[in-house]
Structures
1.
Amino acid sequence: MKLASLFFLFSLHVFAGERLPVPPDSPIRLFFIQRSTNINVAVYDANLIAGKLNPQDPVRTYWYKFNEKPPIEELTMIQRTLAYGLYTTAIQGIMNAFEGHFLAYRKRKFIVKQDASGNPIALFLINGKMQILKRVYVKVDETKFLTTVEYIELFGKDPVTGRDVYEKFKP
């Protein structure tokens, strides 16, 4: 069996199960989005200048593609403006903190800031409380004329207790 065939089988196995691959960790990682459509991941990192969030563009978003070298690829204009892009604005009266929303899903806002230790975090509403968002999984249905989202799973940490938090909802 050829190496490409083995890799394809491995990709299908990983994709078909619950254990999707994750991008390498980074100290500036806010969160990433995994999708049911393939193993590529949309990554959201803090965009820092001199140790502070860039006030013009506090979050850098890109693809991490597991089957490509190099694995990092910038979003296309359409992906950035319609699907995976973010809208952010500085929060008045709070230094180095930004409120925003996903361009594709405006119902839940998030906050990007740095914690007391200077680590960048994204706070997102999970189970009715602002939690540190770590990972998102989106289950997509591509069997219809228009692609639809069946459900979204949010994985994060409670900023006070450090406990894992989880929510699954239909948008």
Note: The longest strand covers residues 129-141.
2.
Amino acid sequence: MGKDGESIPDEEWERFLREAETGTGSAPKEPSARARMVTQRLREQTAPPAPWRSYQAPPRRRGGGRAWYVVGLLLAVALLVVALGPGRVAGWFGAGDGGDEGTPLAAETQRPDGPPPTGPASLRPTLDQPFRGSPAARWADGSAGITLPEARATGWMSKNEVAKALKKSRDFLAASSLDPAVLRGERPREAIAMLNPHQKDVQDYVATAFRAPSRENDPLLLFSRFEKSKVRLVGDVVKTRGRITFGEGERGALEVTTDVTYVYPVTPAAGGSDEVVRTIVRREVVMSWDDPEKVYIDPGTFSLVSYKVDSTNGGCDTFTGYLTPAFGAERAASPPGDGAVVDPYDRSTSMDARMREAGDAGCGTATRS
């Protein structure tokens, strides 16, 4: 039937079907996640939390005597700075007066040049200070740590429409990786509702991932969840750092790329334990806000282009649908991973490079948590 209730002529209907099948003309297209499954391994810090230095990356090789001269000069400068302002030095490591105090970092607007500095190995997280000893102590809380760029007209969208789409993109990240109910293991209904219902491969993935999680259909690719009978979040703050970028995608779509690291402090769900560990998840999600005149899509939803994940102390080759951090004896008894050694706080490397580094070598080892 036409818009006014009249029948569409047979020749018009046949032309529409031909165009839809061949991808020509003005027929909307069914979207597809072009790179949904990128080779990845969920990284796990398998080492116990005490001897951090045992799990640092190998030191850089140095040249001859001049290298030692530079080290000596730097040491002298460091001692002078400590003598003049010890409190300031403590703030660099988020230590403050023994805890998480320190100057908050400015928002991330571009990829950093290197990893954040390493703090004293003696600073362990506690129930009162779950980010103690971590670079995340200076990160922002929740979605405040996800930087939005300035909007501009792109593709089929005006500047105001782009601004709204960027905000909704961040809303999806909050609904999928920060929502307290989802973190407790509930189904991420709000986030799922933002996925284009006409994108069949993604809808199939989501349905299968929550019914029968597996390596290929793992809900952790998009969502952060803990099994509440085993794991409890410490406090109500998740630290984040990351940014959102955008450009014009296929068929004039607004393509939004999100690259965010989430730090979750957790403790055993069973009462009586004061042990705190951190699970660190970095996700890159690429979204396509499509032109409804060119792609089948419902208002307020987006199509997924790709999604990748890399995690520390969240389980390795344990496809239960939940992040599974190790505690106590299990953590102490875990052997070192046979994969790459990485710093989970290092955002100077792109996710593509991180995935290539991970490859299929097995479970990696993190230098810190």
Note: Confidence is low (pLDDT under 50) at residues 1-7, 34-101.
3.
Amino acid sequence: MRKKVDVCIVGAGPGGALLAYLLAKKNISVLLLERTNTLAKAFRGEHINEEGEAVLKKHGLFDKVAALGMLKMEQLEYWLNGQLTKTIVANPAVGHLGIHVPQAHLLQAILDDAIPYPTFQYLLNTKVSSLRQDSTGRYIGVSAICNGEPLEISCQLVVGADGRYSTVRKQAQIDTTVRKHGYDLLWTRIPAPAVWSPSIKMALVDGMQISVFTQVKGFIQIGWNIEQGSYPTLRKQPFEPFIEKLTKAFPVLTDTVEAHITSWQDFVLLDVFSSQTEDWGRDGLALIGDAVHAMTPTGAFGLNSAMKDADILASIIEKQAIERLDYLSCAAQRKQEIEKIQALQIEKEQGFASQFAVLV
């Protein structure tokens, strides 16, 4: 099978999907590829901040996402030894301390608006195997396997929006600098207790951070920082003493934790790192989101940064000048902002324990 489009976007997360939609609106033919069978992946960043909110409102998507379901966080709480010690409430001018938006809702809102455009196509279960180049080295498409069948795509621009382990970046042999942050993360999602208000709760346990995020439809998501590389050893130890630390940190969670977290299998492990890629684009190729600047979970910046990348890149792509795209223009606008965000993440991680210093 062969396809020819103006732009081929690899990776149908929020950044890739938003970029595809914005280009289709500009009468640029775009093909969005996703390697999985579903667009809604579990345990991904699902909190939008003011920047993400602004991008969605700019393109008329915020109210559509809200109609599908979102939840504004009303307060941030710090807990120590099972006691609430500090509460931060949302600035009335902002109205929230972050908004939980299920990725399925965000993608549905984007795709619902994109699909009516004849210039928009997307394919699931499609894995890119290689990038195609012409005799000058310019990227002119991708080779992929779609539902088990070979697929050749010709295009003027390939966009890698395929996450921190980006196939597009690796195939283009673009180097990235990886920084470890000294911790990995255990994720799990369980029903919220009967009495629960939309909030973000933080605790310090054994010098490590535990975060509890309220989600729509009566769930909470727990992020438990553990020492980097410690999980293989940790899971060989008895489970009960480990999980008791969670219920001691947040006594209100005792019943739901005991009912729904019963073994190590109830957690998903996330290898935490951040990265910076000096080269954001080459002739016929561009990178956005985690493919070019992976974030840690701290502050939930990854999703929002990917959407901002998409917004800016879409603004400089013009149908009659795709081959003359100034990649440095997008990179120049974003690199400095990304560096500041990643520095802020490090500052927050290193200073987290200080939030409890006056209480210890």
Note: The chain has two domains: 2-70+99-179+273-351, 182-270.
